[in-house]
C-alpha cells in the first residue's frame, strides 16, 4: 500500500514546554546529530494551553511548532487531553473518575477523566478543534495524536446513567437484558432500567477481575471501551472539521485488556503503539504483539513509543544492551512498523518518569552510548524508505478477541490459572520458532486467504463465528481449537447441548467433562509409540464423534480417552487440543498441524535466528535478527546476499552474534 | 430417634424458574431415571415472587409445586430471602450492607441484606408467611429451608444502633461494659452508649481478622451471629403461624467462622449443611466437619448440598473421580446424614455458577458419567431407609466453641500461625486414624456420657466451664487440654493468677511463659527412652504442681522442663500438651491418653480404611470406605459378613480399592 | 555532659488506673523487690482525666502521683494525648483522621487525632498545661512524656488547608511551587493554591509508598512530620508555662519513616525511644538504631520502652532467653542510654497488648524468671551511676537523612529493591563487626571532628550539602558515597549535567548509566588479582574523571568499567561504590577505606564480641557483650581487668558464653 508518511518518522515525545527556552536550541542541534526527523509534542499540555475555563494560550506552542517546522521535522501533534487541568477538577469535580472501589478521585495522575462527563467532553472536543484550526494546515503537522494511551474505567453516576442508555440501545427491552444476563439466577431480575447499577466492588464485582455476573461485567467492559472510543471519535471529528486529511491516531498498548482494539482500529487512520517489554519478556511475545498491532488494520503501523534504553516503572529496569535497541527497532519494522519513535527525546528533570531513558540523558550532551546508538539507527533508517508501506503476509492466522479475553478471565472455574494472552502466546510461540509468518486477526476477519486458522480458548462463540469457521474448514482450511472453546454465546450463556457447543460437529468430538489440574498435578499422555508427554492446567474428557485421537491420556481415571483429536470435515481438517501439553509433545502435534495445512516457513532451514519478511509488490525484504545470547550460524539461504544496512555481502560460515541484524532484499519470482 | 423424614431425601437444588417450561418435563423424566425423590426449590426467587413492593405473584411457583407434587417429590421449600430484589435496593438503599471498609453496597451478589434493616425484616417475614400460608398444608412440602447459607457482616448505622441495644441488654451499665472490654486500656472509656461505634476498618479493626480491642470485636461477632439468627427466627415464626409442624432448617457451612452454630441449632428443627471439600482437603477434616454438624444437635442431619462432581469457585476445581461421589455420600451418611442432596439438579446456563457440576449437565441428557453415578446411588439409597434416625455414639468428645474460634484468632500474640480449626483437627485426626468415634460438642455440653474429653486451645474459659470440666474429671473422666487454654474469660480478659487459669489446679501445672516458634524453628522433645520428637508453633514453660511429665524439652533454654504432662485429679486424669508435637510423638502420647480413658476403636485391628458406625436400638451399621489411593485389605472382623449395598458376602483376602464402600449390618449384643 | 537525671531511671510504663486499688500496694512492694525506681504514668488516661468537654478529674492521678512520690519513684509523667477520648469523637468527628484511602475514621485505636484539628489542639494543649500546673513542682516528676510514639498521617480537609498554608510559607509563589514539583510534567500546573490536593490514593498516590509526583509527596511527608511536631511543641510550650525546667521528651521509634527525628530532636530536651527488635533482627541493626537515637542530639538518651521478655504484635513473639534482656539492656547503655525502662511494669488484663511481656506477669507474683532477671538488673544498675552522662565518640560518621529516606523510596526506578535503612545498615554492619565506633549524623551535621564520613545512597543532595562534603574532603577527610547519590535536589528534581551531580567533581567520576539487576541476576567484579566478587541490585556505568578504579566489572556489556573508585581530592579521599558487592568483596574494600582514613577499632584484636565504649572526661568504660550463640574467647586486652558488674577479675583463657556482659572501667591516658 502507499505509505502514510513520506519518510520513516524517527523521533519521539518531546516536551520543550517543560524546559526553559535556552535548552530548545541545544535540542535542535542534538536532534540533527541524532538524525531525528520528527517530534511528538503537546501530549500533556492542556493546563498550559488552557490555563482557565475561558482562556486559551497557544503562544508557546506556536513557537514550538514554528521551531520544529523550520527544522523540517515531522510533527506528531497531540491533543493534550490525556490529563485534566487542575482547575477543571476544582471547578467541576465530576470530571474526575470514580474507581472500582467506588471512591471519587481528586486531581492527580493522568488518564483521569470520566469519559461520560459532559464537561470533559465539551472541553476535550474544543481543544482538539482549536488545535486543528490553528495547526491543521501546517504541512509539518504530519499526524494527529489524540489523547494518550486511553485506559481506565469510571464508576460514577454519569457513567451509570450512560451505561443504562447503552444497554437500552443494545437490548431494547428489559426482558431481553434479563435473559442475556441470566438474571433469574440468584433472583437478580430487574424491572426498570434504573435498577441496574455498575458492576464494581459495591455490587457484582468480586475483585477487579472476577464478577458474580459475567453478563453485566462483560457488557460493562464493552461499554467502557466504547465510552473511551466515543471520546476518541469526538476529538477526531473536531479535528476533521478543520483538517480533513492529516492522519489521526492514538497510541495503543499491545494486548492491553481494557479496550477492544479491533473496534478502535476501525476509527483510526493508522495504528500506533507503545512497546515496553520487560527485561524477561520472551521475544516471541514481543513479536506476537507487533503482529497483533499490525493485524488491527492489517496495515503497517507506527511505533509511537519505545525507550532508547531504560524504563522506570517496571520492578527491575535493566539497560538495553549495546545493539539491543537497534535489533528491537528492526524487529518492530520487520513486523510492520513504518516509524520508530521514542519516549522520550529528553529526560524529564522531575516527577515519576525522570528515570525513564531518553535520547538526551540528564547529562545533557551527546557523548553517551544511548545517544550514539540512536544517531546510528537514525542514519540507517534514512536508507530504508522503500520498506515503508510494504506488507507482511502469512497463510496462518491466530484469532485474538477482546470479548473472549474478558469472558474467559471472568469465568469462575474450572481453574484460576487460565489467562488469555498466555494461551494465545503458546500457539504463536510455535510459529515464531519455526519462522512461519502469522497474522493476528479478529474473530470476524475474512479467513479466505488463510490455510490455517488457530483459535485457542475460543470460549465465547458469538453469532456467525461458528458458521464462518465452518465455511473455512469446509472449503479446505485447517482449524485448530482447544479446551475451553465453544462454551458460551455473546452474553456468556452456555451453548447447551454438549461442549464445544457450536464447534462440536466441526471438531467431531463431544467433551463430556473438563478436569482442572492444580499446579502440582500433571496427566500423562501418549502421542505415538515413541513419544510420551505430560499435560497440565485442564484436561477435557473427550468422546470421538467422527474425529480420531492423536494423543490419549495414559493416567488418571480417563486414561484411554483422547487428549488431542483430528477431524476431517468437508475439504478441511479440525485439530482439537483438549489439554495443555508439555512443549515437546505440543510441538510434535503442531508439526502435524502445519503439515496438514502445508504451511511453509520463510526459509526451510531450522534456525534460532528470527526471520521475518516484508513484501512489496516486487520484492521481499528479509529481516534476520539474532536474539539469542549465543552466536548463530547464518542460514545457507542467505550466503552471498547483501545486507541492506551495511552493504556487506554475507559469507559462508558467518555467525550472527547477539542482536546482529541483517536486511536482505530480494526480487520476488512470482 | 424417629427419623424426621419418611425416606432418605435424594435430590437437590432445582431452579425451573430459570428455564423455559419445555425443559421442565425433561427434568421430570430425568429425575425419575436418576431416582431423585426430592427437590429444593425457590432458593433465589424473591424478585420473581415479589416483583414490586405491593405485588406478589406465585403463579409459576404454584406450577412448580404442583408438578413436583404430582411426581411425588419431597419438596424442600426455600423462602427465597437469600438475595434481595433489585427494586428493593433502589427504593430502600438501606436494605443493603455496609462492609468492613465502611462502604455501603449497591445491588448485586447475594447474602446482601442488612440484618437490622426494618424494611428487609418486614418483607422477609412477609414472604415467609405468605409461602407457609400458601404451601404449608401441601403434604409434599417436607421441609422449610429459610434463606441460604446465612453469612456476612454489616456495619451500617442501623446495625450500629442495634449493636448498642444488644450491648445494653447484655451489660446493663456502661461501667460493666467498660470493665468487660478493659476500656481503660488506651483510654477508651465510654460514658454514653452512643459513643460506641462498630469495630471495623474505620475504628478498632486492624484487619478483618485482627482488632485492637478483642472485647468489642468478639461481642460484635456474637451480635452479628445473633442478628442473622433473629432474621432466621423471624422467618421461622412467620412460617409457624401457618404451618405448625413441617421441619424448618437453613443450610449451614461446617466450620464457617461467622455464626455460632451451636446457638443456631437450638432454633432449628434439623441441621442441614453444604459439604464442599477442596481437591486436597484431608478426609479426616471432612469427617470432623460432619461430626460437628451432627454434634450441633447430636442428631442426624441433612446433607443439603454437595456437588455431583465439580465445583466452580475454588482455585482448582477437579472432577470427582469415579466412585468418589458415592464414597463421599456414604461417608456423609456414616457420620449422621439422613439425606443426600446436590447442588444442583440442572446446571445453570449463565452467571457465576455455570461451571458448577450438576446431575443434569449442559449437554442435557443422561448419558454422562455423572448422571449414571447419581442414578446408581439414588437406587442404592432406597434400600437404606432403616439407617435413618440411627445415631452415632462415641465415648470421646472434642469441644468446638465459636467464642474460642473468634477469641483465639483475634489474639495479638504469641504467634500468627495459631488457627482454631487446624488445632481442633489435629486432635480429631488421631481418632479418625484409629477409627474411634468422636462427638463434636459445645463447651456447655453434658459430658456425663463421655470417658474422654478433648479441649484443644480452650483459650476462653467462660463461666461454669471449668467447673463442668472439673466435675467430669473428678468423677473419673479423662481430659486433654493444651497450650493456649484457660487464658481468658468471656470478655477476653485474662484469668489472673497464672496460666492455665481456672484449669491450673485441674491440670496440676503452672505455665510460666509461652514461647513462640517461628516457622523455621523447632524444639527437641524427649518422650521416653526410645522416642525423641520435635515440636513447633508454641512451647509452654511448665512447672509441675502435682502433674507428672510425659515429655520434656531437650533443647532451648527450657531443656528439662515438661512439654506434656499428666495429672491425676479425683478419679480422673488430665493430660496437658504444652507444645505442638510432630505426628509420631503426638500419636504415641495420644495412645497413652486413649489407654488411660480405655477408649476402644470400632474394631480392634489397625486399618487405613475409614470405619464408622451408626446404631439403631438393636443394630450396628458399619460403614467401610477406602479413601486411600492404594487398595486396602478387608479387616478380618468383616470377613464373611454381607455388604448391605451389594448383597455380597465379604471374603478373606479381599481388598478394597479406592472409594470402595461397604455397609455391614449387625445385630448388637447388649 | 552533666546527666539529665540523678540516677539511672529503672522502671517503665505503669497503668494503675487500669487496675483496682488493692493491686496498687502489691505493685509498690514488687517494684521494691525489682529495684524499680521509676514509673511512666498517665500515658493513655485522657478519657479518665477529662471525662467530658468541661470536666477534669485528677483525683485518681493525684493518688497515683502521691503514692509513687511517697515511694521515692522518679515519675515520667505523660500528657495522655496519644489517644482521643470517645466523647470527643462523638461531639467533634473532625478530631479523627482521614486515611490514605480517603476514609474518615471513627473512634478507635490510638494515635488517632488529626494533627490539624483545632479542637484536638485546644484540648491537648489544655490538658498538658493543667498537668504541668498541677504536678510540675512535684520534685518526683522527673520527666515529661508528651503524647506517645507520634505517628501517622491525616488526609482530611483541615489538613488539606493546612498543607496549602505550609506550602505558601515555603514557596511564596505558585510559580515557585510549579517549578519545584515540575508540574508541567503531565500538565499538572496549578494556578491557585486551592487547586492543590493532598497526595493520597484519590490523587497522586500510586500506593502508600509510591507516588506519581514525588515533589508533592515528599513535601507532604515534611508537612506531616511538621504537623505532629507542632502538636508536640504546643504541648511542650503549655507545660513550660508552668514548669520551666523539668526535661520534656516523647518516645521515638528508631528508624521509623514517618518523622524527621533530627528536626524533632531540636525541640526535645532529651531523646527517648522504644526498642523492639524482632527475634531475627541483626544485633548490628539494633546497635545502629541506638547510635542513631543517640546521634539525634549527640547526647545520652532514654530507653523509654523495651520488653522484659516477650512482645505480642510481631508475627512470632519469641521469649528473650535467660541473660538476653540483661545483655540487650547493656548494649543500650553502651550505645548511650542513661535509663532502662520497660513497657510494661504490669501486664494488662485485656485488649490487644495483654500478651506483651511485663515485669509483673499475669501470675501476679515475683517468682518468675522475668521478674528475677529484672530485679537483678535493677540492682546492678544502681552501681553504674557514674556512666550517666558519659559520651560515645567516634571518628566515623554515617549520614542518615529522612528526606533521603522518603525521596529514595518514592523513586520510580531503577529497581523496587532499594530500601533506605537496609542500605545504611550495610555500611554500618562493617564497622560494627570491626568494633569501630560510629556516629549516626544528620546531613547538615558538623563534620569537622570526623576522619571518615559515609554517605550511602545520598540520593537527594540539598543546598549546602555538597559544599560541606567538599570542605570535609578538601581538609583531609575521607568520604564514602555510593550508587544513587547526587541525583536530585530538595524538590526531587535532577541535578542536571551528569550523575552524581554535585558530587561528580568530588568523586572524580561520571556515571553514565545505572543498570538494575533483577534478583536472579548478578554481575562479576574483580577487586584485585586475588579476589573476584559479585554484585547485585544496581550497577553504575562509571567513567573515571580523575579517580582510579578499585574494582572493575568482569561481566555484562560494561565489563572493564570501574565498579568502585577512589579519588584524591584536596587533602582527602573519596571512595565511590557503584554497585552492591557481596560481603567479602565489600569488606575488603571497606578495609581499604578504613586504612585510608586511619580509623582504629576500640581494640586492635579481631573478635566476635561486641565492644563499645563510653567515655567520661577521665575514664573509658568498655562494654563487652557476646551476642553469638557460641562462646567467644576474651580478647587479650581485657585479661586481668575487673568487671565492674561482678567485681571479678577477667582471666586468660576465659570465654564469654552467649549474652555474657562485662563492663571494664579504665582511666584514660590522654
Would you give an account of this structure?
3 copies of one chain form a homotrimer. Chain A has 670 residues and is an alpha/beta fold. Among the domains of chain A are: 1-11 and 273-291 and 300-389, no CATH class; 157-218, no CATH class; 396-597, Class I glutamine amidotransferase (GATase) domain (Rossmann fold); 610-667, Sandwich (Immunoglobulin-like). Chain A contains 17 helices and 27 strands. In chain A, the strands form 5 sheets. In chain A, strands 12, 13, 14, 15, 16, 17, 18, 19, 20, 21 and 22 form an 11-stranded mixed sheet that branches. A 9-stranded parallel sheet of chain A has the order 7-4-3-2-1-11-10-9-8, covered by helices on one side. The first copy, chain A, is globular. At the A-B interface, strand 16 of A face helix 2 and helix 4 of B. Chains A, B, C: Residues 609-658 form the Beta-galactosidase C-terminal domain. Chains A, B, C: The active site is at residues 149, 305.
What labels would you give this structure?
homotrimer; 670 residues; alpha/beta; Rossmann fold; eleven-stranded mixed beta sheet; nine-stranded parallel beta sheet; 17 helices; globular
Helix and strand content put the structural class of chain A at alpha/beta
The oligomeric state of the chains shown is homotrimer
Chains forming the largest contact: A-B, 57 and 57 residues
Helix content of chain A: 25-40%
Q: What fraction strand of chain A?
A: 15-25%
Distance between the termini of chain A: 18 Å
Q: What is the arithmetic mean of pLDDT of chain A?
A: 97
**CATH top level assignment of the domain at 396-597 in chain A:** Alpha Beta
Given as residue ranges, the uncertain stretches of chain A (5+ residues, pLDDT < 50) are none
**What is the annotated CATH architecture of the domain at 396-597 in chain A?**
3-Layer(aba) Sandwich
Number of helices, where a helix is a run of at least 4 consecutive DSSP H or I residues of chain A: 17
Form type of chain A: globular
Amino acid at each position: 500500500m502507499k505509505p502514510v508518511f513520506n519518510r520513516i518518522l524517527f523521533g519521539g515525545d518531546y516536551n520543550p514546554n517543560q524546559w526553559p527556552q535556552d535548552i530548545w536550541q541545544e535540542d535542535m542541534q542534538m536532534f540533527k546529530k541524532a538524525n531525528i526527523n520528527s517530534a511528538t509534542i503537546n501530549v500533556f499540555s492542556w493546563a498550559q494551553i488552557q490555563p482557565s475555563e475561558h482562556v486559551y494560550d497557544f503562544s508557546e506552542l506556536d513557537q514550538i511548532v514554528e521551531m520544529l517546522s523550520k527544522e523540517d521535522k515531522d510533527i506528531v501533534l497531540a491533543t493534550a487531553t490525556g490529563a485534566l487541568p487542575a482547575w477543571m477538577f476544582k471547578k467541576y469535580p465530576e470530571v474526575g473518575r470514580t474507581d472500582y472501589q467506588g471512591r471519587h478521585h481528586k486531581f492527580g495522575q493522568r488518564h483521569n477523566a470520566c469519559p461520560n462527563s459532559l464537561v470533559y467532553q465539551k472541553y476535550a472536543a474544543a481543544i482538539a478543534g482549536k488545535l486543528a484550526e490553528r495547526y491543521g494546515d501546517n504541512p509539518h503537522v504530519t499526524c494527529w495524536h489524540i489523547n494518550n494511551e486511553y485506559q481506565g474505567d469510571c464508576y460514577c453516576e454519569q457513567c451509570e446513567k450512560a451505561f443504562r442508555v447503552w444497554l437500552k440501545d443494545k437490548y431494547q427491552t428489559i426482558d431481553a437484558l434479563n435473559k442475556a444476563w441470566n438474571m433469574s439466577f440468584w433472583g437478580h431480575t430487574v424491572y426498570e432500567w434504573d435498577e441496574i447499577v455498575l458492576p464494581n466492588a459495591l455490587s457484582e464485582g468480586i475483585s477487579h477481575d472476577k464478577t458474580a455476573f459475567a453478563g453485566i461485567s462483560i457488557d460493562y467492559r464493552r461499554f467502557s471501551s466504547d465510552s473511551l472510543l466515543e471520546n476518541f471519535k469526538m476529538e477526531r471529528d473536531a479535528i476533521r472539521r478543520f483538517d480533513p486529511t492529516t492522519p489521526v491516531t492514538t497510541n495503543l498498548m499491545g494486548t492491553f485488556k481494557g479496550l477492544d482494539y479491533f473496534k478502535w482500529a476501525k476509527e483510526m487512520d493508522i495504528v500506533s503503539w507503545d512497546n515496553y517489554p520487560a527485561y524477561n519478556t520472551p521475544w516471541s511475545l514481543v513479536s506476537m504483539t507487533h503482529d497483533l498491532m499490525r493485524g488491527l488494520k492489517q496495515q503497517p503501523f507506527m511505533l509511537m513509543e519505545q525507550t532508547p534504553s531504560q524504563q522506570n516503572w517496571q520492578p527491575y529496569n535493566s539497560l538495553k544492551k549495546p545493539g539491543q535497541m537497534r535489533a528491537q527497532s528492526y524487529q518492530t519494522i520487520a513486523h510492520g512498523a513504518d516509524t520508530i519513535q521514542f519516549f522520550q527525546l529528553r529526560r524529564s528533570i522531575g516527577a515519576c518518569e525522570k528515570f525513564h531513558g531518553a535520547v538526551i540523558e540528564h547529562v545533557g550532551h551527546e557523548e553517551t552510548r544511548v545517544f550514539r546508538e540512536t544517531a546510528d539507527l537514525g542514519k540507517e533508517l534514512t536508507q530504508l524508505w522503500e520498506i515503508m508501506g510494504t506488507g507482511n503476509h502469512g497463510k496462518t492466522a491466530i484469532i485474538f478477541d477482546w470479548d473472549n479475553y474478558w469472558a474467559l478471565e471472568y469465568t469462575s472455574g474450572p481453574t484460576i490459572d487460565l489467562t488469555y494472552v498466555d494461551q494465545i502466546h503458546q500457539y504463536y510461540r510455535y510459529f515464531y520458532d519455526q519462522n512461519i509468518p502469522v497474522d493476528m486477526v479478529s474473530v470476524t476477519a475474512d479467513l479466505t486467504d488463510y490455510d490455517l486458522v488457530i483459535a485457542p480458548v475460543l470460549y465465547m462463540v458469538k453469532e456467525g463465528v461458528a458458521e464462518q469457521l465452518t465455511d473455512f474448514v469446509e472449503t479446505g482450511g485447517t482449524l485448530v481449537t482447544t479446551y475451553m472453546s465453544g462454551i458460551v454465546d455473546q452474553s456468556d450463556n452456555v451453548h447447551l447441548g454438549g461442549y464445544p457447543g457450536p464447534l462440536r460437529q466441526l471438531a467431531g468430538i463431544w467433551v463430556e467433562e473438563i478436569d482442572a489440574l492444580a499446579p502440582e498435578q500433571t496427566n500423562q499422555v501418549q502421542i505415538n509409540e515413541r513419544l510420551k508427554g505430560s499435560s497440565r492446567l485442564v484436561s477435557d474428557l473427550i468422546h470421538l464423534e467422527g474425529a480420531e485421537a492423536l494423543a490419549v491420556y495414559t493416567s488418571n481415571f480417563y486414561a484411554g480417552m483422547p487428549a488431542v483429536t483430528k477431524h476431517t470435515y468437508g475439504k478441511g481438517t479440525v485439530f482439537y487440543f483438549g489439554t495443555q501439553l508439555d512443549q515437546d509433545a505440543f510441538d510434535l502435534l503442531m508439526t502435524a498441524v502445519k503439515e496438514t495445512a502445508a504451511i511453509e516457513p520463510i526459509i526451510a532451514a531450522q534456525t534460532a535466528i528470527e526471520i521475518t519478511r516484508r513484501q512489496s509488490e516486487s520484492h521481499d525484504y528479509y529481516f534476520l535478527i539474532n536474539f539469542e545470547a549465543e552466536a548463530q550460524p547464518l542460514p545457507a539461504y542467505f550466503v552471498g546476499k547483501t545486507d541492506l544496512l551495511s552493504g556487506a555481502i554475507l559469507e559462508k560460515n558467518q555467525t550472527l552474534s547477539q542482536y546482529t541484524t541483517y536486511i536482505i532484499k530480494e526480487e520476488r519470482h512470482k
